[in-house]
Amino acid sequence: MGKGKGPYLCGLDAAVDVVGGKWKPLILWALYAGRTLRFGELRRHVPGVSEKMLIQQLREMEADGIVHREVYREVPPKVEYSLTELGETLNKALEPLGLWGDKHMERLVARQAEKIEQSA
């Protein structure tokens, strides 16, 4: 899974391997609750991600069984992404982390600003 690191030390180690990085949690969040998105739509829901990085992250998540990629044989080609059942359970597990971030976001942003000021 993820980078294929294993064996894992604990469940948290395994989970972080699958969702590690800046973009995977945002991709998971964009594909919440049975939502299906085409590549362009998904890219709009994850601002700042390059096309190359989004493709790479989606491939890793598909290999991990988190994301389902459906290719429709038509012209022009149509590809849709959705969460698998495993991906849905992972998204639910991340909900408390998102709530923690919402609760502490102001404090976290202030700390980042302090760091920037100190390094300038």
Query: Can you tell me the number of structural domains?
Result: 1
Helix content: 55-70%
Strand order of the largest sheet: 1-3-2
**Low-pLDDT regions:** none
Could you give the order of the helices and strands?
HHEHHEEH
Structural class: mainly alpha
CATH class: Mainly Alpha
Mean pLDDT: 89
How far the N terminus sits from the C terminus, by CA atoms, comes to 40 Å
Task: Write out the CATH superfamily name.
Answer: Winged helix-like DNA-binding domain superfamily/Winged helix DNA-binding domain
The CATH architecture can be named as Orthogonal Bundle
Quick summary of this structure?
By secondary structure, the chain is mainly alpha-helical. The protein has five helices and three strands, in the order ααβααββα.
Describe the protein's architecture and organization:
- The mean pLDDT is 89.
- The protein has one domain (11-119): Orthogonal Bundle (Arc Repressor Mutant, subunit A), CATH 1.10.10.
- It has a three-stranded antiparallel beta sheet with strand order 1-3-2.
- It is built from five helices and three strands, in the order H-H-E-H-H-E-E-H.
- The chain is mostly helical and 120 residues long.
- The chain has helices at 11-19, 24-30, 39-45, 51-63, 85-119; strands spanning 37-38, 67-72, 78-83.
- 59% of the residues lie in helices and 12% in strands.
